[in-house]
Amino acid sequence: MTRSFSPPVVLTGLGVAEDNLLENTPSKWARRQPPFKVMEVLKKGRELEREGRRVIHFEVGEPEFPAPLAIVKAGKQALDDGHTGYSEALGIPELRIAIADDYQSRFGIDVDPSRVAVTTGASGALNLLFSVLLNPGDRVLMPDPGYPCNEAFVRLVGGEPIRMPVDEHTGFQPTAKIVNEYWTANTVGVVLATPSNPTGAMIQKAQLTAINEFVAERGGFVMVDEIYQGLVYEPDVTEVATSSLGIEPNLIVVNSFSKYFGMTGWRLGWCVVPDGLIEALERAAQNLYIAPPTVAQYAALAAYSSEGFRVLDERRVLLQQRRDLMHRGLIDAGLEIPLMPRGAIYLYANISSLGTDAETFSARLIDDYQVGVTPGTDFGSYLARDHVRFAFTADEQHIREGTEKISHAVRRFQNEV
Ligand SMILES: Cc1ncc(COP(=O)(O)O)c(C=O)c1O
Predict the structure, then answer these.
(1) What is the pLDDT along the chain (417 residues), one digit of tens a residue?
(2) Helix, strand, or coil here: 131?
(3) Is the Cβ–Cβ distance between 270 and 241 less than 8 Å?
(4) Using omega within 30 degrees of 0 as the cis cutoff, is the peptide bond preceding 292 cis?
(5) Are 323 and 341 in contact (CB under 8 A)?
(6) Which of 269, 190, 267 is nearest to 228 (CA)?
(7) Burial class (CB in 10 A: 0-12, 13-18, 19+), 107
(8) What DSSP string describes 40-73?
(9) Most exposed residue of 66, 102, 162, 387, measured as fewest CB within 10 angstroms of its CB?
(10) Does ligand 1 have an atom closer than 6 angstroms to the CB of 91?
(11) Residue 140 contacts residue 159 (beta carbons within 8 Å)
């Protein structure tokens, strides 16, 4: 007999369950938390697949390649060698050293391993960092559109996320002028991402320097999420194509084994922090989740080999070809793409000319065409209803087939106007 999950309790108003016996639960934070829409689309796609339908996935931000063989082998070896217990809270020393050495060997940036904290994905790093950086009421600036979970992390520790609208006029990245406009007496820091999710936009070196100077004068922090660091195509000399640490060694940098290294499910990431923060981070890690996953750490060591980088680099070239193919397909379908991304794995398209909004567009694509895409409303509110994110991680055949279906859907929307 196949078992299924009971249907969820119906939520009303702010999301308070009707038959909830504990009046004050879930917490205000939990009630306020919107669903991560990409995961909802993915869930719907998986349901359709279980019914035997074929679904094309352009929604989820996950390279379709499994972890490289060398990493998988090292993971298996770690199990055989009995590395199944807790590690140090900041990660095994070998991996902290390998990460620090890699900044030197690939980017010529000097990082002391003592400033590296290995975490449970970039998510774990962001969570830890906000818990040691913020006091209740502190404001943190972040771009809109931008990675939505940062809002949740900031709110969890009583902080207030403040979105800075960005669009094609500033290359979908904040400038020092914008940071200045949004900075108030309660603001303590800025979170940036380069290349960014959902636009793939890269930050200009000059802007990062100016933002850093502005924030440093006010005693704040600048955190740069570099999770898509290895996935940069055609780097431009004016942009930060490697690590922001090359611009300013005292920035806080977040990274992960999820995307470039193809290890999303291993839940492993890291951050590099200024000396003064590492001890607080260690105590926070010990208390919040004890240690990052040990087997994953031994596996990740294998990424730092010439064979590891050879495979990863081949994949980067493949992703660039997929970006180009999907870009052409979406343009041919009649969508407008304001920025050709030089990094990450997403195309952010403007659908406003179709006379519909992003959520209706996404819902129709999954329901009628079995193509998963993510509405811009997942990434903020600024012009979000006009935009949809497409991940170009599927293989060529799926991209061709998916963009043809999108073309059909677009014609239907246009005929309805
Ligand atoms: C910008 C950004 N930061 C952080 C994350 C979280 O990644 P991880 O899997 O390392 O927790 C993601 C995931 O998509 C992301 O796009």
Answers:
(1) 456 666 555 444 454 455 556 778 899 999 988 888 888 899 999 999 999 999 999 998 888 889 999 999 999 999 999 999 999 999 999 999 999 999 999 999 999 999 999 999 999 999 999 999 999 999 999 999 999 999 999 999 999 999 999 999 999 999 999 999 999 999 999 999 999 999 999 999 999 999 999 999 999 999 999 999 999 998 888 988 889 999 999 999 999 999 999 999 999 999 999 999 999 999 999 999 999 999 999 999 999 988 889 999 999 999 999 999 999 999 999 999 999 999 999 999 999 999 999 999 999 999 999 999 999 999 999 999 999 999 999 999 999 999 999 999 999 998 887
(2) helix
(3) no
(4) no
(5) yes
(6) 269
(7) middle
(8) HHHHHHHHHHHTT---EE-SS---SSPPPHHHHH
(9) 66
(10) no
(11) yes
196 CA closest ligand 1 atom index: 1
DSSP state of 10: P
DSSP state of 195: S
Extract the tokens encoding 143: 């771009």
Q: Give the amino acid at 264.
A: T
CATH superfamily of 12-65+309-416: Aspartate Aminotransferase, domain 1 (3.90.1150.10)
Residue 264, Cβ neighbours under 10 Å: how many? 18
Q: How do the domains of the chain map onto residue ranges?
A: 12-65+309-416, 70-305
SS (H, E, C) 156-194: HCCCEEEEEECCHHHCCCCCHHHHHHHCCCCEEEEEEEC
Give the Cβ contact number of residue 218 at 10 Å.
11
**The two structure tokens encoding residue 218:** 């006010």
- Cβ atoms within 10 A of the Cβ of 76, count? 13
Are domains 12-65+309-416 and 70-305 of this chain identical in fold?
no
Ligand 1 binding pocket includes 147 (Cβ within 6 Å)? yes
291 within ligand 1 shell (Cβ under 6 A): no
269 lines ligand 1 (CB under 6 A): yes
With the most atoms of ligand 1 within 8 angstroms of its CB, the residue from 118, 123, 172 to mutate is: 123
**What topology does CATH give the domain 70-305?**
Aspartate Aminotransferase; domain 2 (3.40.640)
